[in-house]
Amino acid sequence: MDVNAAVAAVAAIAGVLTGVIAVLAFRWSEREQKRPTRSSLHTDAVLPPGVDTVLSVLRSSAVVLDEADAVVKASSAAYALGLVRGGKLAVEPMLQMARDTRRDGEIRQVELDLPRRGTGRGEALAVSARVAPLGSRLVLLLVEDLTEARRIEAVRRDFVANVSHELKTPVGALSLLSEAVMDASDDPEAVERFAGRMQIEATRLTSLVQELIDLSRVQNDDPLEDAEPVRVDELVAEAIDRCRHQAGAKQITMAAGGTADLHVWGNRGQLAAALGNLVENAVNYSPARTRVGIAARRVNAPGGEHIEIAVTDQGIGISDKDKERIFERFYRVDPARSRATGGTGLGLAIVKHVAASHGGEVTVWSAEGQGSTFTLRLPEAGAARDRAHQQPARQIRAGGAGLDEEAGRSTPTSPESTAYETLPAPEVLP
Protein backbone atom coordinates (compact mmCIF):
# COMPACT_ATOMS: atom_id res chain seq x y z
CA MET A 1 0.00 0.00 0.00
CA ASP A 2 2.85 2.38 0.86
CA VAL A 3 4.40 1.70 -2.58
CA ASN A 4 1.15 2.43 -4.39
CA ALA A 5 0.66 5.62 -2.44
CA ALA A 6 4.17 6.76 -3.34
CA VAL A 7 3.63 6.04 -7.03
CA ALA A 8 0.35 7.98 -6.97
CA ALA A 9 2.04 10.92 -5.28
CA VAL A 10 4.84 10.99 -7.85
CA ALA A 11 2.30 10.84 -10.71
CA ALA A 12 0.32 13.73 -9.18
CA ILE A 13 3.44 15.85 -8.82
CA ALA A 14 4.47 15.09 -12.42
CA GLY A 15 1.01 16.08 -13.66
CA VAL A 16 1.13 19.38 -11.77
CA LEU A 17 4.60 20.17 -13.18
CA THR A 18 3.44 19.37 -16.73
CA GLY A 19 0.45 21.69 -16.33
CA VAL A 20 2.61 24.50 -14.97
CA ILE A 21 5.09 24.13 -17.85
CA ALA A 22 2.25 24.15 -20.42
CA VAL A 23 0.75 27.33 -18.93
CA LEU A 24 4.11 29.07 -18.93
CA ALA A 25 4.80 28.03 -22.51
CA PHE A 26 1.39 29.31 -23.62
CA ARG A 27 1.93 32.68 -21.90
CA TRP A 28 5.38 33.02 -23.45
CA SER A 29 3.99 32.20 -26.89
CA GLU A 30 1.29 34.86 -26.56
CA ARG A 31 3.83 37.45 -25.51
CA GLU A 32 6.08 36.62 -28.45
CA GLN A 33 3.17 36.85 -30.91
CA LYS A 34 2.17 40.27 -29.59
CA ARG A 35 5.73 41.55 -29.73
CA PRO A 36 6.38 43.43 -33.03
CA THR A 37 8.85 41.72 -35.31
CA ARG A 38 12.06 43.38 -36.35
CA SER A 39 10.79 44.05 -39.85
CA SER A 40 7.45 45.42 -38.69
CA LEU A 41 9.11 47.68 -36.11
CA HIS A 42 11.47 48.87 -38.82
CA THR A 43 8.72 49.53 -41.35
CA ASP A 44 5.98 50.93 -39.14
CA ALA A 45 8.29 53.12 -37.07
CA VAL A 46 10.34 54.55 -39.97
CA LEU A 47 8.02 54.95 -42.96
CA PRO A 48 6.04 58.22 -42.95
CA PRO A 49 2.26 57.80 -42.62
CA GLY A 50 0.54 56.83 -45.86
CA VAL A 51 3.71 55.96 -47.75
CA ASP A 52 3.12 52.23 -47.45
CA THR A 53 -0.34 52.59 -49.03
CA VAL A 54 0.96 54.79 -51.86
CA LEU A 55 3.77 52.38 -52.71
CA SER A 56 1.35 49.46 -52.87
CA VAL A 57 -0.65 51.05 -55.71
CA LEU A 58 2.27 52.23 -57.84
CA ARG A 59 2.85 50.45 -61.15
CA SER A 60 6.60 50.91 -60.78
CA SER A 61 8.74 48.66 -58.61
CA ALA A 62 9.41 50.46 -55.31
CA VAL A 63 12.21 50.04 -52.79
CA VAL A 64 12.77 52.13 -49.63
CA LEU A 65 16.28 52.14 -48.12
CA ASP A 66 17.38 53.39 -44.70
CA GLU A 67 20.62 55.14 -43.76
CA ALA A 68 22.42 51.77 -43.59
CA ASP A 69 21.29 50.77 -47.13
CA ALA A 70 18.99 48.13 -45.62
CA VAL A 71 15.66 47.53 -47.37
CA VAL A 72 12.85 48.98 -45.25
CA LYS A 73 10.08 48.33 -47.78
CA ALA A 74 10.00 46.64 -51.18
CA SER A 75 7.10 45.88 -53.50
CA SER A 76 6.50 42.42 -54.91
CA ALA A 77 7.46 43.69 -58.36
CA ALA A 78 10.90 44.64 -57.02
CA TYR A 79 11.44 41.07 -55.86
CA ALA A 80 10.16 39.72 -59.19
CA LEU A 81 12.68 41.83 -61.11
CA GLY A 82 15.47 40.62 -58.83
CA LEU A 83 16.20 44.09 -57.42
CA VAL A 84 16.08 42.91 -53.80
CA ARG A 85 17.83 39.80 -52.52
CA GLY A 86 18.48 38.87 -48.91
CA GLY A 87 17.13 42.16 -47.61
CA LYS A 88 19.61 44.16 -49.70
CA LEU A 89 19.42 46.08 -52.95
CA ALA A 90 21.16 43.77 -55.43
CA VAL A 91 21.89 46.27 -58.22
CA GLU A 92 25.12 48.13 -57.51
CA PRO A 93 24.50 51.18 -59.79
CA MET A 94 21.13 51.78 -58.10
CA LEU A 95 22.70 51.37 -54.68
CA GLN A 96 25.34 53.98 -55.54
CA MET A 97 22.63 56.35 -56.76
CA ALA A 98 20.80 55.92 -53.46
CA ARG A 99 23.96 56.75 -51.48
CA ASP A 100 24.60 59.87 -53.58
CA THR A 101 21.02 61.03 -53.16
CA ARG A 102 21.16 60.46 -49.39
CA ARG A 103 24.31 62.56 -49.25
CA ASP A 104 23.20 65.61 -51.28
CA GLY A 105 19.40 65.23 -51.48
CA GLU A 106 19.29 65.48 -55.30
CA ILE A 107 16.87 63.41 -57.40
CA ARG A 108 18.64 61.14 -59.87
CA GLN A 109 17.44 59.06 -62.82
CA VAL A 110 19.20 56.58 -65.09
CA GLU A 111 18.33 53.84 -67.60
CA LEU A 112 20.00 50.47 -67.15
CA ASP A 113 20.05 47.03 -68.77
CA LEU A 114 19.75 44.30 -66.16
CA PRO A 115 20.31 40.56 -66.72
CA ARG A 116 17.04 38.69 -66.88
CA ARG A 117 16.59 36.62 -63.75
CA GLY A 118 16.43 32.86 -64.16
CA THR A 119 17.57 32.66 -67.80
CA GLY A 120 20.92 31.62 -69.14
CA ARG A 121 20.41 33.55 -72.35
CA GLY A 122 21.81 36.98 -73.07
CA GLU A 123 18.45 38.70 -72.76
CA ALA A 124 18.34 41.85 -70.66
CA LEU A 125 15.68 43.90 -68.94
CA ALA A 126 15.61 47.57 -69.85
CA VAL A 127 14.65 49.61 -66.79
CA SER A 128 14.45 53.25 -65.78
CA ALA A 129 15.50 53.92 -62.16
CA ARG A 130 14.63 57.12 -60.28
CA VAL A 131 15.96 57.86 -56.78
CA ALA A 132 14.60 60.57 -54.46
CA PRO A 133 14.94 61.39 -50.74
CA LEU A 134 12.04 60.33 -48.52
CA GLY A 135 12.14 62.32 -45.32
CA SER A 136 15.45 62.95 -43.59
CA ARG A 137 16.73 59.38 -43.33
CA LEU A 138 15.13 57.31 -46.11
CA VAL A 139 15.66 57.03 -49.86
CA LEU A 140 12.95 55.97 -52.31
CA LEU A 141 13.86 54.02 -55.45
CA LEU A 142 11.28 53.65 -58.25
CA VAL A 143 12.10 51.29 -61.12
CA GLU A 144 10.01 51.02 -64.29
CA ASP A 145 10.36 48.11 -66.73
CA LEU A 146 10.88 49.52 -70.23
CA THR A 147 11.53 46.20 -71.97
CA GLU A 148 8.15 45.95 -73.69
CA ALA A 149 8.13 49.63 -74.64
CA ARG A 150 11.55 49.26 -76.25
CA ARG A 151 10.44 46.16 -78.12
CA ILE A 152 7.40 47.98 -79.49
CA GLU A 153 9.57 50.93 -80.48
CA ALA A 154 11.97 48.58 -82.28
CA VAL A 155 9.07 46.96 -84.13
CA ARG A 156 7.76 50.39 -85.13
CA ARG A 157 11.21 51.49 -86.26
CA ASP A 158 11.72 48.32 -88.30
CA PHE A 159 8.27 48.71 -89.81
CA VAL A 160 9.00 52.25 -90.98
CA ALA A 161 12.35 51.14 -92.42
CA ASN A 162 10.76 48.19 -94.22
CA VAL A 163 7.95 50.31 -95.62
CA SER A 164 10.45 52.84 -96.90
CA HIS A 165 12.49 50.10 -98.55
CA GLU A 166 9.50 48.35 -100.09
CA LEU A 167 8.09 51.61 -101.49
CA LYS A 168 11.47 52.71 -102.78
CA THR A 169 11.91 49.62 -104.97
CA PRO A 170 8.87 50.02 -107.28
CA VAL A 171 9.06 53.82 -107.22
CA GLY A 172 12.70 53.72 -108.28
CA ALA A 173 11.91 51.17 -110.97
CA LEU A 174 9.12 53.36 -112.33
CA SER A 175 11.45 56.35 -112.45
CA LEU A 176 14.12 54.45 -114.39
CA LEU A 177 11.59 52.89 -116.76
CA SER A 178 10.01 56.25 -117.51
CA GLU A 179 13.44 57.62 -118.46
CA ALA A 180 14.00 54.57 -120.65
CA VAL A 181 10.68 55.17 -122.39
CA MET A 182 11.64 58.78 -123.08
CA ASP A 183 15.02 57.75 -124.48
CA ALA A 184 13.43 55.04 -126.66
CA SER A 185 10.59 57.19 -127.99
CA ASP A 186 11.55 56.33 -131.57
CA ASP A 187 11.59 52.57 -130.89
CA PRO A 188 8.02 51.21 -130.58
CA GLU A 189 9.13 47.77 -129.45
CA ALA A 190 11.29 49.16 -126.65
CA VAL A 191 8.51 51.51 -125.56
CA GLU A 192 6.08 48.59 -125.40
CA ARG A 193 8.54 46.49 -123.42
CA PHE A 194 9.29 49.25 -120.94
CA ALA A 195 5.62 50.13 -120.62
CA GLY A 196 4.87 46.51 -119.72
CA ARG A 197 7.48 46.62 -117.00
CA MET A 198 6.05 49.90 -115.74
CA GLN A 199 2.64 48.30 -115.48
CA ILE A 200 4.06 45.42 -113.42
CA GLU A 201 5.81 47.78 -111.01
CA ALA A 202 2.73 49.98 -110.75
CA THR A 203 0.63 46.94 -109.90
CA ARG A 204 3.13 45.89 -107.24
CA LEU A 205 3.11 49.40 -105.77
CA THR A 206 -0.69 49.43 -105.72
CA SER A 207 -0.80 46.05 -103.99
CA LEU A 208 1.71 47.19 -101.37
CA VAL A 209 -0.21 50.38 -100.59
CA GLN A 210 -3.49 48.49 -100.41
CA GLU A 211 -2.08 45.87 -98.04
CA LEU A 212 -0.65 48.61 -95.84
CA ILE A 213 -4.12 50.13 -95.69
CA ASP A 214 -5.66 46.75 -94.94
CA LEU A 215 -3.13 46.05 -92.18
CA SER A 216 -3.74 49.43 -90.60
CA ARG A 217 -7.50 48.86 -90.75
CA VAL A 218 -7.45 45.43 -89.11
CA GLN A 219 -5.13 46.72 -86.37
CA ASN A 220 -7.21 49.78 -85.51
CA ASP A 221 -10.81 48.83 -86.26
CA ASP A 222 -13.08 46.61 -84.20
CA PRO A 223 -14.40 44.03 -86.68
CA LEU A 224 -17.13 42.88 -84.31
CA GLU A 225 -18.91 46.23 -84.51
CA ASP A 226 -20.25 45.21 -87.93
CA ALA A 227 -20.15 41.47 -87.31
CA GLU A 228 -22.62 39.10 -88.91
CA PRO A 229 -22.92 35.37 -89.61
CA VAL A 230 -20.76 34.63 -92.66
CA ARG A 231 -21.04 31.44 -94.69
CA VAL A 232 -17.73 29.61 -94.90
CA ASP A 233 -18.69 28.18 -98.31
CA GLU A 234 -18.95 31.70 -99.70
CA LEU A 235 -15.59 32.70 -98.23
CA VAL A 236 -13.93 29.65 -99.80
CA ALA A 237 -15.56 30.29 -103.19
CA GLU A 238 -14.47 33.93 -103.12
CA ALA A 239 -10.90 32.97 -102.24
CA ILE A 240 -10.77 30.44 -105.07
CA ASP A 241 -12.14 32.96 -107.57
CA ARG A 242 -9.51 35.45 -106.47
CA CYS A 243 -6.69 33.03 -107.32
CA ARG A 244 -8.23 31.23 -110.29
CA HIS A 245 -6.13 33.09 -112.87
CA GLN A 246 -2.79 32.46 -111.11
CA ALA A 247 -3.68 28.82 -110.53
CA GLY A 248 -4.70 28.34 -114.17
CA ALA A 249 -1.43 29.84 -115.40
CA LYS A 250 0.50 27.25 -113.36
CA GLN A 251 -1.96 24.40 -114.05
CA ILE A 252 -2.66 24.10 -110.32
CA THR A 253 -5.87 22.31 -109.36
CA MET A 254 -7.84 23.79 -106.45
CA ALA A 255 -10.14 21.50 -104.47
CA ALA A 256 -12.69 22.58 -101.86
CA GLY A 257 -14.20 20.16 -99.36
CA GLY A 258 -15.17 19.62 -95.77
CA THR A 259 -18.39 20.14 -93.85
CA ALA A 260 -20.97 22.26 -95.66
CA ASP A 261 -23.25 24.99 -94.30
CA LEU A 262 -20.82 26.31 -91.68
CA HIS A 263 -20.98 29.89 -90.44
CA VAL A 264 -18.48 32.09 -88.60
CA TRP A 265 -19.16 35.34 -86.78
CA GLY A 266 -17.28 38.43 -87.92
CA ASN A 267 -16.59 41.06 -90.53
CA ARG A 268 -17.12 39.54 -93.96
CA GLY A 269 -14.60 41.75 -95.76
CA GLN A 270 -11.78 41.04 -93.33
CA LEU A 271 -12.48 37.30 -93.22
CA ALA A 272 -12.53 37.12 -97.03
CA ALA A 273 -9.21 39.00 -97.21
CA ALA A 274 -7.60 36.68 -94.65
CA LEU A 275 -8.65 33.44 -96.34
CA GLY A 276 -7.84 34.91 -99.75
CA ASN A 277 -4.28 35.65 -98.58
CA LEU A 278 -3.81 32.07 -97.41
CA VAL A 279 -5.05 30.60 -100.70
CA GLU A 280 -3.01 33.09 -102.73
CA ASN A 281 0.16 32.17 -100.83
CA ALA A 282 -0.55 28.47 -101.39
CA VAL A 283 -0.86 29.03 -105.14
CA ASN A 284 2.19 31.31 -105.39
CA TYR A 285 4.46 28.91 -103.50
CA SER A 286 3.29 25.71 -105.19
CA PRO A 287 5.04 24.15 -108.19
CA ALA A 288 3.18 23.81 -111.47
CA ARG A 289 0.69 20.95 -111.91
CA THR A 290 0.11 20.41 -108.19
CA ARG A 291 -2.97 20.78 -105.99
CA VAL A 292 -4.20 23.24 -103.39
CA GLY A 293 -6.89 22.07 -100.97
CA ILE A 294 -9.30 24.06 -98.82
CA ALA A 295 -11.30 22.14 -96.20
CA ALA A 296 -13.55 23.31 -93.36
CA ARG A 297 -14.90 21.54 -90.30
CA ARG A 298 -16.46 22.20 -86.89
CA VAL A 299 -14.40 21.48 -83.75
CA ASN A 300 -15.15 21.59 -80.03
CA ALA A 301 -13.17 24.08 -77.96
CA PRO A 302 -13.29 25.20 -74.30
CA GLY A 303 -14.84 28.54 -75.31
CA GLY A 304 -17.47 27.00 -77.58
CA GLU A 305 -17.54 25.43 -80.99
CA HIS A 306 -15.10 26.78 -83.58
CA ILE A 307 -14.70 26.49 -87.33
CA GLU A 308 -11.36 25.42 -88.77
CA ILE A 309 -10.50 26.25 -92.38
CA ALA A 310 -7.34 24.49 -93.56
CA VAL A 311 -5.45 25.54 -96.70
CA THR A 312 -2.90 22.98 -97.86
CA ASP A 313 -0.37 23.10 -100.68
CA GLN A 314 2.38 20.90 -102.10
CA GLY A 315 4.91 23.72 -102.21
CA ILE A 316 8.43 24.34 -100.99
CA GLY A 317 7.53 24.07 -97.31
CA ILE A 318 8.80 26.15 -94.40
CA SER A 319 11.80 25.46 -92.18
CA ASP A 320 11.47 25.36 -88.40
CA LYS A 321 13.35 28.63 -87.93
CA ASP A 322 11.12 30.40 -90.45
CA LYS A 323 7.89 29.14 -88.86
CA GLU A 324 8.49 31.40 -85.86
CA ARG A 325 8.68 34.52 -88.03
CA ILE A 326 6.43 34.04 -91.03
CA PHE A 327 3.62 36.07 -89.43
CA GLU A 328 5.89 39.09 -88.97
CA ARG A 329 5.32 42.06 -91.23
CA PHE A 330 7.52 42.05 -94.37
CA TYR A 331 9.16 38.75 -93.44
CA ARG A 332 9.65 36.42 -96.41
CA VAL A 333 10.79 32.81 -96.39
CA ASP A 334 12.26 33.27 -99.87
CA PRO A 335 12.68 36.98 -100.69
CA ALA A 336 13.69 36.36 -104.31
CA ARG A 337 10.65 34.16 -104.93
CA SER A 338 8.36 36.65 -103.19
CA ARG A 339 9.52 39.46 -105.42
CA ALA A 340 9.08 37.27 -108.47
CA THR A 341 5.46 36.55 -107.48
CA GLY A 342 4.76 40.13 -106.41
CA GLY A 343 4.55 39.27 -102.71
CA THR A 344 4.74 42.12 -100.19
CA GLY A 345 5.38 40.15 -97.01
CA LEU A 346 2.21 41.54 -95.38
CA GLY A 347 -0.32 38.85 -96.27
CA LEU A 348 0.25 36.55 -93.29
CA ALA A 349 0.52 39.51 -90.90
CA ILE A 350 -2.96 40.55 -92.01
CA VAL A 351 -4.24 37.00 -91.51
CA LYS A 352 -2.82 36.92 -87.97
CA HIS A 353 -4.44 40.22 -86.98
CA VAL A 354 -7.80 39.29 -88.50
CA ALA A 355 -7.82 35.97 -86.67
CA ALA A 356 -6.86 37.59 -83.35
CA SER A 357 -9.43 40.40 -83.64
CA HIS A 358 -12.16 37.81 -84.31
CA GLY A 359 -11.24 35.77 -81.24
CA GLY A 360 -9.45 33.07 -83.23
CA GLU A 361 -5.96 32.10 -84.30
CA VAL A 362 -3.94 30.92 -87.29
CA THR A 363 -1.46 28.05 -87.08
CA VAL A 364 0.89 26.37 -89.52
CA TRP A 365 2.24 22.89 -90.09
CA SER A 366 4.96 22.44 -92.66
CA ALA A 367 7.92 20.33 -93.71
CA GLU A 368 10.55 21.49 -96.18
CA GLY A 369 9.89 20.11 -99.63
CA GLN A 370 6.57 18.54 -98.56
CA GLY A 371 4.15 21.45 -98.46
CA SER A 372 2.36 23.42 -95.79
CA THR A 373 -1.02 23.51 -94.04
CA PHE A 374 -2.29 26.83 -92.68
CA THR A 375 -5.30 26.48 -90.38
CA LEU A 376 -7.56 29.42 -89.64
CA ARG A 377 -9.67 28.83 -86.52
CA LEU A 378 -12.62 31.15 -85.84
CA PRO A 379 -15.61 31.09 -83.45
CA GLU A 380 -18.76 29.70 -84.98
CA ALA A 381 -21.81 31.95 -85.25
CA GLY A 382 -24.18 30.84 -82.48
CA ALA A 383 -27.43 31.33 -84.38
CA ALA A 384 -26.02 29.65 -87.45
CA ARG A 385 -24.73 26.73 -85.39
CA ASP A 386 -28.27 25.91 -84.32
CA ARG A 387 -29.36 25.77 -87.96
CA ALA A 388 -26.34 23.81 -89.11
CA HIS A 389 -26.84 20.09 -89.76
CA GLN A 390 -24.38 17.24 -89.70
CA GLN A 391 -23.04 16.20 -93.10
CA PRO A 392 -22.58 12.51 -94.05
CA ALA A 393 -19.06 11.42 -93.26
CA ARG A 394 -17.02 10.36 -96.24
CA GLN A 395 -13.28 10.30 -96.32
CA ILE A 396 -11.67 13.12 -98.24
CA ARG A 397 -8.88 12.06 -100.52
CA ALA A 398 -6.00 13.91 -98.98
CA GLY A 399 -2.39 13.36 -98.03
CA GLY A 400 -1.65 15.72 -95.18
CA ALA A 401 -4.93 17.46 -96.10
CA GLY A 402 -3.16 18.14 -99.39
CA LEU A 403 -5.79 16.41 -101.58
CA ASP A 404 -3.07 14.92 -103.73
CA GLU A 405 -3.73 11.16 -103.95
CA GLU A 406 -4.85 11.66 -107.52
CA ALA A 407 -1.58 13.45 -108.24
CA GLY A 408 0.19 10.10 -107.96
CA ARG A 409 2.33 10.85 -104.90
CA SER A 410 1.82 10.92 -101.14
CA THR A 411 2.75 13.45 -98.50
CA PRO A 412 3.00 12.88 -94.76
CA THR A 413 -0.05 13.62 -92.69
CA SER A 414 0.19 16.82 -90.67
CA PRO A 415 -1.08 17.15 -87.08
CA GLU A 416 -4.01 19.20 -88.32
CA SER A 417 -4.93 16.76 -91.07
CA THR A 418 -5.86 13.96 -88.67
CA ALA A 419 -9.02 15.90 -87.88
CA TYR A 420 -10.00 15.92 -91.56
CA GLU A 421 -10.18 12.18 -92.05
CA THR A 422 -13.98 12.19 -92.29
CA LEU A 423 -15.21 14.95 -94.57
CA PRO A 424 -17.45 15.14 -97.64
CA ALA A 425 -15.76 14.53 -100.94
CA PRO A 426 -14.08 17.69 -102.24
CA GLU A 427 -15.42 19.80 -105.04
CA VAL A 428 -12.61 19.99 -107.60
CA LEU A 429 -12.29 23.42 -109.19
CA PRO A 430 -9.87 23.53 -112.10
What descriptive keywords fit this protein?
alpha+beta, five-stranded antiparallel β-sheet, 13 helices, elongated
How would you describe this protein?
With 430 residues, the protein is of the alpha+beta class. It is built from 13 helices and 15 strands. The strands form four sheets. Strands 13-14-12-11-9-15 form a six-stranded mixed sheet, covered by helices on one side. A five-stranded antiparallel sheet has the order 2-1-7-6-5, sandwiched between helices. The protein is elongated, with a radius of gyration of 35 Å.
The SSE string, one letter per element, is: HHHEEHEEHEEEHHEHEEHEEHHHEEHE
Oligomeric status: single chain
Low-confidence stretches: 36-45, 383-430
Class computed from helices, strands and strand pairing: alpha+beta
Number of strands: 15
- Range of helix content: 40-55%
Number of helical segments with 4 or more residues: 13
User: Taking Cα atoms only, what radius of gyration do you get, to the nearest Å?
Assistant: 35 Å
Beta-strand content:
15-25%
Silhouette: elongated
Rounded mean pLDDT is 75
Biggest beta sheet attributes: 6 strands, mixed
Strand order of the largest sheet: 13-14-12-11-9-15
Distance between the termini: 115 Å
Strand and helix layout:
Layout (H helix, E strand, L loop, with lengths): L1 H33 L3 H9 L4 H7 L3 E5 L5 E4 L1 H5 L3 E2 L2 E2 L2 H13 L3 E8 L8 E11 L3 E8 L1 H37 L4 H33 L7 E4 H18 L3 E6 L4 E4 L1 H17 L6 E9 L6 E7 L7 H4 L11 H7 L5 H11 L3 E6 L5 E8 L2 H6 L39 E3 L1
Parallel strand pairs: 9-11
Antiparallel strand pairs: 1-2, 1-7, 3-4, 5-6, 6-7, 8-10, 9-15, 11-12, 12-14, 13-14
